């Protein structure tokens, strides 16, 4: 039996989307290798997550400890080193997030495990895997493979895989005792620092109104923002908008910005350069407004409007507001 272990990531009482994305991918791989999906869930008072996770994973390895109330790579590494040494899953998946970037390299090094980071593609290839990683800020997709035999550790880029609602299983929760003791851990959690007021986490938004250089002037931003608000979404942008300091970096979508996967992505005055598309092509529905019928974005968009955004956006905003009043 080949076990695939997903390390669950949760923060401030919420399971992170990357966990479900990894589990869906793990289920697909498990079908191919006739394996089993396990989830390592570490924390304090996280039993309710275990109940949720067992509908998607064959086994939830639950490690509860007061010292795991907040993530620190040191405490997590101690627990996971023990788990991975004992269970020896064939493959361990972690998010390529702040959490995984902090934890995966030292965990892999301490266990002598081959590690591949920031993967956007992952396929079974014989006894190993073929991985896709991006190079040169997304200009090249490189297929790489491990030279050494497993077990392997891989970090997955958020948004790279979609969540499947179909794979429902009747898994079980297995409590695992924590190896942590009261010995002094050198890292300790101090506080969460919230994003500056007004900054929205665009990776969590269901609807994004995304603006590009085509909006021409920062004076036009309030109109775009009003459209986003009328639709109950958030504002994001392409890189030139950040370079010009019209919006903060946290709003940038793309290879050097964030990967987003909203249900709806409305691109206004964005040409569709591959560095931008790489960050949003996983959106459920892409709607593009561009005055150039040959703009590359129309090659990706599900719906396209060829026209002047300064005519289209006010009309759209008015229509949405009318509908909301009804
Ligand atoms: C290493 C590297 C990393 C990069 N990372 C990123 C990244 O993370 N994210 C990113 O976005 N880019 C990134 N870029 C830049 C990327 O290559 C493009 O330059 C950028 O995405 C273009 O932004 P844009 O579409 O807003 O602007 P443009 O390409 O200038 O497009 C503007 C569009 O607006 C349209 N338009 C103009 N006026 C109107 C109007 N009135 N009505 C409707 N449409 C109109 C035009 O037809 C045009 O298609 C990166 C580049 C490099 C080299």
Order of helices and strands, N to C? EEEHEHEHEHEEEEEEHEHEHEEH
Strand content: 25-35%
The helix content, as a percent range, equals: 25-40%
Q: What Rg is obtained from the alpha carbons, in whole angstroms?
A: 22 Å
Ligands bound to this protein structure = flavin-adenine dinucleotide
Which runs of at least 5 residues are low in confidence (pLDDT < 50)? none
| Separation of the first and last Cα atoms | 57 Å
Count, helices: 8
Main-sheet strand order equals 9-8-7-10-6-1-4-5-11
- Derived from helix and strand composition plus strand pairing, the structural class reads alpha/beta
Shape: elongated
Write a concise keyword list for the protein shown above.
326 residues, nine-stranded mixed sheet, five-stranded parallel sheet, 8 helices, 27% helix, elongated, binds flavin-adenine dinucleotide
Helices and strands in order:
Layout: E1 3-7, E2 10-11, E3 14-15, H1 17-33, E4 36-43, H2 47-53, E5 59-64, H3 73-87, E6 91-95, H4 98-111, E7 115-125, E8 128-135, E9 140-145, E10 152-156, E11 172-175, E12 207-211, H5 221-230, E13 234-237, H6 239-243, E14 264-268, H7 274-277, E15 285-290, E16 303-306, H8 309-325
Parallel strand pairs: 1-4, 1-6, 4-5, 5-11, 6-10, 7-10, 12-13, 12-14, 14-15, 15-16
Antiparallel strand pairs: 2-3, 7-8, 8-9
Helix pairs in contact: 3-4, 5-8
Bound molecules: flavin-adenine dinucleotide.
Flavin-adenine dinucleotide is lined by residues 137, 212-214, 238-240, 252-257, 269-271, 273, 275-276, 279, 289-292, 295, 308-310.
């Amino acid at each position: 039996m080949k076990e695939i272990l997903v390390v669950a990531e949760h923060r401030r009482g919420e399971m992170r989307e990357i966990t479900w994305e990894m589990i869906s991918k793990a289920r697909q791989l498990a079908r191919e290798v006739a394996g089993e999906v396990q989830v390592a869930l570490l924390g304090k008072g996280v039993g309710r997550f275990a109940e949720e996770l067992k509908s998607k994973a064959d086994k939830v390895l639950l490690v509860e400890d007061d010292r795991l109330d907040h993530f620190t790579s040191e405490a997590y590494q101690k627990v996971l080193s023990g788990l991975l040494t004992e269970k020896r899953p064939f493959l361990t998946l972690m998010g390529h997030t702040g959490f995984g970037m902090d934890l995966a390299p030292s965990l892999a090094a301490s266990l002598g495990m081959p590690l591949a980071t920031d993967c956007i593609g992952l396929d079974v290839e014989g006894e190993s895997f073929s991985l896709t990683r991006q190079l040169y800020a997304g200009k090249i997709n490189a297929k790489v493979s491990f030279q050494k035999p497993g077990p392997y550790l891989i970090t997955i880029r958020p948004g790279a895989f979609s969540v499947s609602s179909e794979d429902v299983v009747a898994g079980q929760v297995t409590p695992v005792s924590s190896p942590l003791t009261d010995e002094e851990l050198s890292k300790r959690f101090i506080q969460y620092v919230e994003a500056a007021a007004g900054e929205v986490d665009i990776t969590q938004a269901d609807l994004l109104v995304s603006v590009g250089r085509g909006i021409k002037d920062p004076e036009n931003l309030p109109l775009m923002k009003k459209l986003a608000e009328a639709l109950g979404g958030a504002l994001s942008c392409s890189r030139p908008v950040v370079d010009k300091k019209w919006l903060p970096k946290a709003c940038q979508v793309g290879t050097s910005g964030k990967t987003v996967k909203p249900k709806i992505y409305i691109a206004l005055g964005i040409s569709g350069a591959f560095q931008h598309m790489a960050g949003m092509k996983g959106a459920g529905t892409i709607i593009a407004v561009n005055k150039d019928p040959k703009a590359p974005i129309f090659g990706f968009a599900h719906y396209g409007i060829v026209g002047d955004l300064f005519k289209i956006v006010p009309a759209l905003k008015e229509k949405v507001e009318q509908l909301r009043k009804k």
